[in-house]
Amino acid sequence: MYMRYFFRLFSAMAGPRPVVLSGPSGAGKSTLLKNLLKEYEGVFGFSVSHTTRSPRPGEENGKDYHYVTREYMQASIDKGEFIESAVFSGNMYGTSKASVQAVKDKNLICILDIDMQGVRAVKTTDLNPIYISIQPPSMNILEKRLRDRNTESEESLQKRLDAAQVDMEISKEPGIFDIVIVNDNLDDAYGKLKDALIEEIKKVQKNNLS
């Protein structure tokens, strides 16, 4: 269980529009994103999140996470420097305004892969991203995909399914997402994802050539 804290950005960010990508586990976000990054190398980037947890073996500060103290992170949150943040298993995690801007400064489209609560948090800011939801065709198909993974307990699986049901309902609300992509066929879903982003992709490619 964790809590989300919402904060407002006070100044517009320059550079390509970011992309907020959301959807339940098992909907196919990771596969679609992997295909996108492979086809458009040097176009997209990820912001480096902050956390108060200690680095794990092999992790690098500034690459995997920005590892900071709880006092530093809370102070930054209080100043409105974070787009969204969460407390999970006693540790704080969050996406800072500066980390997104750092990606945009490189003329890259910043991808924020966040949950529905994070989407609502971004809605309170002036980040102006493209909001995209990736959804499964049905709960039955989603359950089969998750079970086929065979990676978690029944209790954990049920929690994911319950969260997915809520996610699917919220995705239908008007004004939440610019586009909702139902991943029934991977090629079709990928085509729709590219269509939604092609204008920003072309802008980045054009700037890179100039």
Count of individual beta strands? 10
The assigned CATH architecture is: 3-Layer(aba) Sandwich
Largest sheet: 5 strands, mixed
Oligomeric state: single chain
Order of helices and strands: EEHEEEHEEHEHEHHEH
Please explain how this structure is put together.
The chain has seven helices and ten strands. It is 43% helix and 20% strand. Helix 5 packs antiparallel against helix 6. It has a single domain, classed as P-loop containing nucleotide triphosphate hydrolases (Rossmann fold, 3-Layer(aba) Sandwich). With 210 residues, it is α/β, with parallel strands linked by helices. The longest helix is centred in the last third of the chain and has 24 residues. The relative contact order is 0.22.
Can you lay out the helices and strands and say which pair or pack?
Layout: E1 4-6, E2 19-22, H1 29-39, E3 44-46, E4 50-51, E5 66-67, H2 70-78, E6 82-88, E7 91-96, H3 97-105, E8 109-113, H4 116-123, E9 130-135, H5 139-149, H6 154-171, E10 179-182, H7 186-209
Parallel strand pairs: 2-8, 2-9, 3-8, 4-5, 9-10
Antiparallel strand pairs: 1-6, 4-7, 6-7
